[in-house]
Structure formats: structure tokens, C-alpha cells
Amino acid sequence: MNTHLNTALALAASGVPVLPLRQGKRPVGNCPACTGNGCGDRPNMKAAGPCQCPRPCHGWAAATTDPDILQSSAWAAAWRQAHAVAYHPGGARLTVVDLDNADAIAWARESLPATRTVPTTRGEHWIYRGAMGSVNGVREGVDLKSTMAYARWLGPGTGTMTDLPDAVRALAVKKPSPVQATPPVVTVPAPAGGGECRHRTPAYLERGIAMAEQRITEARSGVHTTVYRTFLAVLSAHGRCGCLTDAHVGRLFAAAQSKGETARHCNDAWSNARTSLGM
Description:
Blueprint: H1 3-13, E1 18-22, E2 26-27, H2 67-70, H3 73-81, E3 84-87, E4 94-99, H4 102-111, E5 116-119, E6 124-129, E7 135-139, E8 142-145, E9 151-152, E10 162-163, H5 166-173, H6 202-217, H7 223-238, H8 246-258, H9 263-276
Helix pairs in contact: 6-7, 6-8, 7-9
């Protein structure tokens, strides 16, 4: 069996979402539309590229712990191309402080609590237990990789992993806060034939929205896919009768953003779901 696939399966079995990397530490396109960067993926690949695939097929959003997916025929070509294995730290409830040079390492030793460390080509990865937003360039030679990012797997490292400290969280605060998504205006036709739609029954509608929020917030991997499919399900059930309000959509967007989705991802997922349903 492919050595990289073996590594990926071992990590997945321990609850770490993984994905293949091709040469240059870039994600492998796992569908024809994304092969050879056909979808136009961005250099940092914090998210799946702007392709119109039915699901995210590469980058952090494709990281999974499902051995059936990892060993599927759809991923076989990806593993044949793979030069390394990456993982989604946020999906494993971890944060990687990526120290890119000797000065950054010296700063970390003076400023941050000791934790598990992994040597890299030019520096070290310091790994903490706990997830947060990913931010590049929080200081010279220091990046934070957690939600919506991937890190190359370079071995288990040494030292005891400690909880994510406030000193690391504070590094991200210096960056501007992400803009909250503005829920799109929902314009749908009134129920045919008049009368009150059963979806407007408070208990029925509330239960549906609450279940959708729960599905998103409980996702442990494949968050981008879960958000899209949940939006699709909500629109399929409630989107044609006029019962959805901006407040309902706002709750779904807030749940998605609590899992690391950006405003753009929320709007794109909602728009794609509407398009899929012909709305």
C-alpha cells in the first residue's frame, strides 16, 4: 500500500482529518475539474478553490477521518500523486504555531508555554490542544494554523502537548475581525392556493432550524460540505413557501461561522444551494 496512504489511515484512526499533498506542499485535486489547478485554487489554499464542484474536493475542506473515503477509487489518483500528508488541525481541535526561522523559535521559547514541537524544514511547529481561527503573519515568521487551514504532517514530535494558551489567542486579536455575513434577502413565492403554510407553525419551523444549527455545530470534519448540504436541506424543506425569514438565515450563517466558515463561504453555499434547487 502507498506509504502516504498508510500514514493517513493511521492518523485518521486517531481522529485527525487528513488529505494528500502533491509536490510543492499543495493539495491534490481529487476530481477532474480540479486536476492541475483547473479550478483556480489560491496559493495559500485556506479554503477550497472557487470551482463549482458539488462538494469541496481539496484543501482543508476535504480533510477526512473516513477510511472508506481515503481508500476510495476517487482518491486513488490523489495518493499516487502525493508527496506528503497534511492534516486539518482545527478539525482535530488543535492549533499549530508555525515558526519559520530561528528568530521566531527564539521568540516562542521566551513568550509561549512549552508544548509538543515538531521540526520543519526551516523551523518548528508548536502544537497546542484547542482550536482557533487561522491567521498568517501574526508576527515575523509566525503563522497560526487551525480552522480552515492545513499543516504538513512531519511526525508526532516531542514533548507534552498543552492547552492552547491565551498568549497564542491574543496574537490573532491583532488582526481585523472577520466581517460577519449579511444573510441574503429571501424572496420566495407565497403558498399556492392561499391558506397558512404548515411550516409557519412555530414548533415545526423552530425544530427544523434548530436541527440544522445542531448539524452544523456538531460537524467534526468536512465542515464546508456539511454547511452546504444543511443549507440545501433547509431550502428544500422551507425555501419555496415563504416561511424563512432573514432571522432564520442569520442563525444558520452564525452556526457556520462558529465553525470557521467565512462570510463569503456562507453566501456562496447559500447561493449554490438555491441554484441547485432552481430557486
